[in-house]
């Protein structure tokens, strides 16, 4: 019978660090899990080859892969698909962040972080490994103590929450847009969820199994943009000490999302336009061009027509990007989604902060509905997090709202209209499901789509709340 004991593999060239992290893990990790340390790749590969299915987590210093994504990805192929990876790194650049964004690693940690902090991440990674390997069985008492908080995306359309008409239309548009490789421009105010929409387009497309990269056009200095996009060869300019793969090439076969595209320097706008027209890139320091297959999705929170008028954005680039244009509604334009969003974030933060919850005060929801939400969904999410952190005796109360929300509170006469004295989270959820079923004439699948939850979830909730259906 093969050895079924789980392993954590630690990979680092420095023996002192290996000894220190093993000592910390001995305190944090149950005896049922063995910690094995290696100082070079070859030794660890031989061990993993024998114990592949038992290797729950790899904690590796990125330096052992010569700080090369290609070397790391080659090594990753020796691991089981379920093995969770935590990379230790001294410097975080867009290439290594892309590994986290594309779920190729569980987490990134700085090596200078405390051993206890890294050990806590390892505990979560082991828990995720167990969760994915077998949803029913766990490693004795250990699994009862450490629970993996499932992703926000589980019961939603890639995190896009709402059943208002505008959001339902947007979801339909996303599914249609995903069928094409045409460039797409997403327009909407800050905090409306443009990044989630871009991710949804990628996930719904045939490119979903390939790489998805994000570039924040406002965060990269103008003088570094060309190198970040197209890459450079060693020695091509002062400071180019090694070859660098540009993010366009790194995204080949998949999708790239340009956030805040109107912040792109004008010089780079011309070069991006040329790439979109021809599909070729030329790395700095090279004379030849290469064909790159990548889908470009962009977003902006600015009035793009005004940016064109102000000569801050090229009209021809706008027309090339806007082959398909999606407009994201602000939260004040879909206030009927606020109770559903509130409930969604409430459940998330109750779990995350491990809080006891009982009721929501009767005045709270009317206040949220009366507010204009200049920060949109992001602002609502932060407000709910604040309420959960400050709640007392299991009650979410309007007294803990930020001052700017309180000043827009409705008059007492409107507060009581059709609002019970206290609303439990279960009551809110049950009521939402009942209303959706009524709107869909009892069709459970249609109701699930309206609520932004999965088919399995609505069947489970109907049974849980004993909701009568046709």
Mean pLDDT: 81
Largest sheet: 5 strands, parallel
| Cross-sheet strand order for the largest sheet | 2-1-3-4-5
Cα end-to-end separation? 52 Å
The count of strands amounts to: 17
Query: Low-confidence parts, pLDDT < 50 over ≥5 residues?
Result: 135-155, 411-423
Instruction: Quote the beta fraction.
Output: 5-15%
General shape: globular
Structural class of the helix and strand makeup? alpha/beta
Helix content: 40-55%
Using the CA coordinates, give the radius of gyration: 25 Å
User: How many separate helices?
Assistant: 21
Concise description?
With 470 residues, the protein is α/β, with parallel strands linked by helices. Helices cover 44% and strands 14% of the residues. The protein has helices at 15-28, 41-51, 69-76, 94-101, 115-133, 140-145, 165-178, 194-204, 222-230, 247-250, 266-278, 304-309, 315-321, 338-353, 364-370, 376-390, 403-406, 412-415, 425-439, 444-451, 455-464, and strands spanning 6-11, 33-38, 55-61, 84-89, 107-110, 184-187, 212-216, 231-232, 244-245, 255-259, 280-281, 290-291, 295-300, 324-327, 359-361, 395-396, 422-423.
Name a few traits of the molecule.
470 residues, alpha/beta, 5-stranded parallel beta sheet
């Amino acid at each position: 019978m093969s050895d079924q004991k789980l392993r954590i593999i630690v990979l680092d060239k420095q023996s002192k660090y290996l000894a220190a992290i093993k000592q910390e893990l001995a305190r944090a990790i149950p005896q049922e899990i063995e910690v094995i340390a290696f100082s070079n790749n070859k030794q660890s590969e031989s061990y993993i080859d024998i114990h592949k299915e038992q290797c729950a987590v790899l904690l590796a210093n990125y330096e052992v892969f010569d700080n090369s994504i290609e070397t790391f990805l080659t090594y990753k192929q020796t691991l089981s698909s379920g093995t969770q990876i935590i990379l230790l790194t001294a410097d975080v650049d867009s290439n290594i962040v892309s590994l986290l964004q594309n779920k190729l690693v569980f987490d990134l940690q700085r090596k200078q972080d405390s051993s206890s902090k890294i050990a806590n991440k390892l505990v979560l990674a082991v828990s995720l490994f167990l969760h994915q390997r077998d949803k029913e069985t766990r490693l004795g008492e250990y699994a009862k103590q450490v629970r993996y908080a499932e992703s926000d995306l589980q019961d939603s359309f890639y995190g896009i929450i709402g059943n208002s008409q505008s959001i339902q239309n947007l979801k339909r548009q996303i599914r249609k847009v995903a069928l094409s490789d045409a460039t797409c421009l997403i327009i909407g105010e800050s905090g409306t969820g443009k990044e989630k929409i871009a991710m949804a387009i990628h996930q719904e497309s045939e490119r979903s199994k390939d790489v998805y990269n994000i570039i924040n056009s406002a965060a990269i200095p103008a003088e570094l943009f060309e190198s970040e996009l197209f890459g450079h060869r060693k020695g091509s300019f002062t400071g180019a000490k090694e070859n660098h793969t540009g993010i366009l090439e790194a995204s080949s076969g998949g999708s790239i999302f340009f956030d805040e595209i109107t912040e792109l320097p004008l010089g780079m706008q011309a070069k991006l336009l040329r790439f979109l027209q021809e599909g070729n890139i030329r790395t700095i320091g090279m004379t030849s061009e290469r064909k790159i297959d990548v889908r470009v999705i962009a977003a902006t929170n600015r009035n793009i027509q005004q940016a064109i008028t102000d000569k801050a954005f090229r009209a021809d680039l706008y027309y090339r990007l806007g082959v398909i244009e999606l407009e994201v509604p602000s939260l004040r334009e879909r206030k009927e989604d606020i109770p559903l969003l509130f409930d969604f974030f409430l459940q998330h933060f109750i779990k995350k902060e491990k809080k006891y919850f009982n009721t929501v005060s009767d005045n709270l929801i009317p206040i949220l509905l009366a507010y204009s939400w200049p920060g949109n969904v992001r602002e609502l999410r932060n407000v709910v997090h604040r309420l959960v952190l400050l709640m007392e005796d299991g009650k979410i109360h309007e007294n803990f709202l930020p001052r700017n929300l309180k000043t827009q509170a409705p008059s007492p006469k409107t507060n009581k209209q059709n609002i019970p004295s206290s609303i439990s989270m279960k009551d809110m959820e049950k009521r939402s499901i009942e209303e959706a079923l009524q709107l869909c004439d009892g069709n459970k699948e249609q109701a699930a789509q309206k609520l932004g939850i999965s088919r399995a979830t609505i069947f489970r909730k109907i049974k849980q709340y004993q909701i009568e259906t046709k």
